[in-house]
Here is the input.
Amino acid sequence: MISHIKSTVFSILIKKNSSNIKHLGTGFLIGKEGLFFTVGHTFRKIKKEIENNGLNNIFVAFPKKQAELIEINRLQYKSIEIYKQKGPTYIDIAVGSIPIKNDDYLVFKRKRPSNKEKLTAYGYKNMKDNGLHELSENTANLEKVELKPEKVNKTHDIALISDVRRDYELSREKVNRSRFFNNCITLDKRLFSGGSGCPIVDSDGYVRGVLIGSSQIVKSSDMILSKYCTKYIRYHTSIMFDMYQDINS
Here is the structure.
């Protein structure tokens, strides 16, 4: 499984200058022609950079000591700050493509995970204190961007997503319903920064959801369900979805 994950899950990077590059988040391939998926807030956080320079300084790479930078040649994303969002649908999606051909890719499974299912989040974590990695022309030393598999379990079928402490101190029945999102579920661990956008995979290797982030208040994380991811691609983007993805079941 790990070799398959390492060939399909990548680091999203921003070039800081001619000699340094920084890890922003995690993404993964979902098609043979370089189609990929991740969360939208990775790009929303660098909105000004994209407005000023397009995607010229944004790359992906499969981390290792000498990692080739791969340009992003197509990107469509939508993300809204948490305090502006209201249920029942959480919006934090990005779809794009990179110029590679790769027979290895991950497939969404639209079924909502059960309470007993074993799930693993596969995200990349930046292990350098200053966050910067050496860059030489089109190659970066990314051996300190490390894959961190994390076993996770579902705790709630409908996620409470909020940055207000009071929401978590109340019983769920008393929380304003606009704080709940039925296209997400809550997980039992607070996962690391940099893992946002990573696939959450079942024991058969199917993607059951995508990590959108972790609470600053309680030790939990949330993921957007695969069913919503595929629906978003199909109905809200101009990207043609490959036939082998599970979008009709």
The chain has a mean pLDDT of 91. Residues 2-236 form a domain with the Thrombin, subunit H fold (CATH 2.40.10.120).
